[in-house]
Amino acid sequence: MSELAALVGLWSVLTLWFALLWRARPALLQPHQRGLWLTVLAATLAITLFQPRVAGWLTDAGVELHTVSLARNLIGVLSAGLVLLFMVDPTRTRRLRLSVTVGLPTALAALLVLDLLQLEPRAGTASVQGPADPASAYWLILIGAHLVGDAVALVVCWLYSMRTADRDLVWSLRLFAVGSVLAVVFWFGYLWHLYGRTPRMLPYLSVIIGVHGFFRAASLLVPTATALVRSANALRTTWRLWPLWRDLMTAVPHVALARPQRTRLREVLRPRSPLALQAHRQTIETYDALLDLQRWVRPDAYEKAHRHARRSGVREDRLTSAALAGALDQARRAKLAGAPPADPCPLPGVVHGSPATLLGIARMWPTTTEALTGSDRS
User: Fold this and answer.
1) pTM check: above 0.85
2) 218-231, pLDDT tens digit by residue?
3) CA-CA distance, 206 to 152, in Å (whole number)?
4) What's the rounded Cα separation, in Å, for the pair 96 and 117?
């Protein structure tokens, strides 16, 4: 269990520092994210000093183990105070915010004084995770600060997450709340360890605080995860829509802001605009081309393409897309052949350029170039 605790602790610390560094610039530039970032920074410093390897490196460098433990505990209380300041709404609970502002430095000063008064009894502590005198007010203040801070964070985060429509904020708050639950469990367990003298609990508590670190890091990385998902969706749209978009731009070039590049791979690897904008532009241009080509759609083209697709064994859920692709291909060929336009023949199921509809047509597009030819022979 000790090996697992050390492994979880190591990866937890690395993940936290990665999240902090990755989100530093955007978080510090935005006031509503700055508090969360600073809170996680303080917690990360405390968790880092909690790791036996880090404590060992510091003691090898000449830092006393007692100093490492004291620094960790002071930073931990600072983290708990920052959690309260971050969670408390300054416009509605000014008295509570003032109480936290006064109470935090008071608690830190009390810990320092109590540490100096009880330095000798704690000098023999051999582990950076080990307890001092269980009767000491030092530990009651330390654990009480953490329990209050994490309990308030749990309640406030969960309540706020149910009131906002911002999905990023919802996930950030709920992940932070789960981390607070684990922190509460850790400090209750640590309190039991102090009074019950149960050293076997320490590896389990180390695992809990390590997992808590993963959730704190995840709460910071929610905007990054959302951005990655959006980029992946934009890349998927650009890749799947490209053959249809390229062929339609050949027939209706005036709707394109820029000519398609030579290959699909080049389009996604060297986009001429951000991927999200590229996907949006291709979707709009494809729909505009579709509307234009409806003047070349024969009245019976959709029905013939539908029958041909069914005879060809196209799956039931893709018949509509295959029929639309076939009718659109007939119109594209007719325009490229110089056929005169007629009154528009609206294609069924195409509403406001729905990306799902266009992607469905694009999925069937390479396989329907002869759909109308086959159906015309029947």
Assistant:
1) no
2) 988 998 999 999 99
3) 23
4) 30
